[in-house]
Amino acid sequence: MVANERIADTRDAYARSLPGGISRGDASGVDYRRFERGDVRTIVREYDGMWGCAGGSVSDEVSLLLSRHCVLHYLSLSTRGYIAQSDGAFLGVLFARLAQDPPIAPEAEESLRDVDSRLRGSVEGRRALEAMDEWFAREPVLERDAGLLGEVHAEIELFLVSGAARGHGVGNGLGARALDYFHSHGENRYYLHTDSSCDVGFYEHKGLSRVAERIDPGRAGGHDDGAMHVDQFVYAGRIGLDDAVDGRLTWA
């Protein structure tokens, strides 16, 4: 099954399971809570359905392991996590990091090492892991280029909204909680990493600015080598009084 078909299947499943409050186009049926360790399995499944690479260059098994690697990587860095749900159905997740706060899941690093060991057990897994490591290694370079290193201490590590829940305020609700978390600790700037496979227009609509980018050489050169080529971006935003409505921060 190709990646787009897998994403469509995931969205169709949620379209069938979402309660009426969501399908009518509002967020009245959405509950938000803190991340719990038992959420990892669901987040990995959703991440793989949204951004996994099964059906392309790797098998379903390696795709799922690689998705678990990515989720654990973000989790190991995060100091706060929020889950959006409705009637028990997962709608979205946001992981955030403040440099001065302790991680919410220190055990994630050990789990990450275990996943990496399993990936290295096959040729395709090892190659996929090497490519992902190169991807993550470029992030601090982009942060340096943007002048963020040592200057901005608040970051959104992972932001995922179920396809069927988009357009119903779920992303706004998750983002508002991240802004409130940052602001309550005295931070007025934040940033995030994203790429051309995502809807970067969403962040621009929220008032964030692109402060650094890396255009993939294969994509820029028009190469058709069968690999997925995406560009990497860094977006940064500010938190101010304009983001508050009735004393509460918003991301709208």
Question: How many domain modules?
Answer: 1
Q: What is the alpha-carbon Rg in Å?
A: 18 Å
- Find the structural class using helix and strand composition: alpha+beta
Q: CATH superfamily name?
A: Gcn5-related N-acetyltransferase (GNAT)
The name CATH uses for the topology is: Aminopeptidase
Summarize the structure.
The chain has helices spanning 3-17, 20-23, 40-51, 60-77, 108-119, 123-145, 170-184, 200-205, 217-220, and strands at 31-34, 80-86, 89-98, 154-161, 189-195, 209-214, 232-238, 244-245, 248-249. The protein is an alpha+beta fold and 252 residues long.
Descriptive notes:
The chain is α+β, with helices and mostly antiparallel strands. The chain is built from nine helices and nine strands. The chain has helices at residues 3-17, 20-23, 40-51, 60-77, 108-119, 123-145, 170-184, 200-205, 217-220; strands spanning 31-34, 80-86, 89-98, 154-161, 189-195, 209-214, 232-238, 244-245, 248-249. The strands form two sheets. Strands 1-2-3-4-5-7-6 form a seven-stranded mixed β-sheet, sandwiched between helices. The chain has a two-stranded antiparallel sheet with strand order 8-9. A hairpin with a 2-residue loop joins β8 (244-245) and β9. α1 (3-17) crosses α3 (40-51), α3 crosses α4 and α4 (60-77) runs antiparallel to α5 (108-119).
